[in-house]
Design brief:
Strand content: 15-25%
Strand order of the largest sheet: 1-6-7-5
Number of strands: 10
Order of helices and strands: HEEEEEEEEHHHHHHEEH
Largest sheet: 4 strands, antiparallel
Distance between the termini: 34 Å
Shape: elongated
Structural class: alpha+beta
Helix content: 25-40%
């Protein structure tokens, strides 16, 4: 799933390729991708792109009319085309969900792999009217997101750190991969209760949160859209690296699997050398 660093990089890439250019066609291929119907996608046609922004994991393309907002979900992606194929795309069982064409002949495709179709596209006058955007918590890279504000979010939070970090209404933009990376950098168990952190632990987690995301954004800065996935994977230290050695201590990275996801962690760095039980309601083995 694209998370804050990748969406931030996509925002910067698209700002350099879309702003000041006119949309001539928006072609939905998978009708299920459209989550709004008024205004219609045709309201974007003939409009000039004025800005590209980001709300958490939502990508916002603003025009001198409506906004085109998309959430790439778990398996969605944006593919930039210097020259779009001739003719309209043919509906079928392929990954193509929506195509946006510019007056220059350039444009982009939104695609989604797999059978769980969660890619979402909205055409709205105000992005804040999208329920997923309206419920977002603060952006962890915003200038006013300081340690005091972060500590306030954790007060009374009875969930485990892994779940709290992934909650978009608590903190916007962090998903499964970067929550693993943040917790590894902070040397904390994913199942530690958020409200139980000491002031020193809160500071450590805050610094890991900001530092991990900022480093990922920096690595992705200036990359073309097609290179962002591989850059993300190459920069991950524990997520997706089950049974590989931890780059910090050399211990074997372990995994806890859930019904639809998994997490990775280093026992030596994060759980005092104790492995977590690999079952849904995992706790530290006694």
């Amino acid at each position: 799933m694209p998370e804050l660093p990748e969406v931030e990089a996509l925002k910067d890439f698209l700002a350099g390729h879309l702003v000041g250019r006119r949309v001539v066609r928006v072609l939905p291929v998978a009708v299920s991708v459209l989550k709004t119907y008024d205004p219609p996608v045709s309201a974007l046609e003939g409009r000039e792109v004025t800005a590209v922004g980001r709300f958490g994991k939502f990508l916002d393309i603003a025009t001198d009319g409506p906004h085109l907002v998309t959430h790439l979900a778990r398996a969605g992606w944006l593919h930039w085309k210097d020259t779009l194929p001739d003719g309209p795309p043919r509906p079928g069982k392929g990954p193509l969900a929506l195509r946006v064409a510019l007056e220059t002949g350039e444009g982009f495709d939104l695609t989604e792999a797999g059978t769980q179709k969660r890619l979402a596209v909205y055409v709205v006058e105000d992005p804040e009217r999208i329920p997923g955007v309206a419920r977002l918590g603060p952006d962890p890279l915003a200038g006013d997101f300081d340690e005091k504000r972060f500590a306030g979010l954790l007060q009374g939070e009875r969930r485990r750190l892994k779940g709290a970090l992934r909650d978009q209404s608590l903190i916007a933009g962090v998903g499964n991969a970067y929550s693993d990376e943040i917790l590894h950098a902070a040397r904390m168990s994913p199942f530690k209760i958020a409200s139980s952190l000491t002031p020193e632990e809160t500071r450590r987690l805050y610094e890991a949160l900001r530092g991990t995301l900022a480093e990922a954004v920096e690595r992705s800065h200036g990359l073309a859209a097609g290179r962002l996935k591989s850059e993300k994977k190459s920069g991950l230290r524990v997520h997706g690296r089950t049974r590989e050695p931890c780059p910090v201590c050399g211990d074997t990275i372990r995994e806890v699997s859930f019904s639809d996801s998994s997490l990775q962690y280093c026992p030596t760095c994060q759980t005092g050398g104790k492995p977590l039980a690999d079952r849904r309601m995992s706790r530290l083995l006694k």
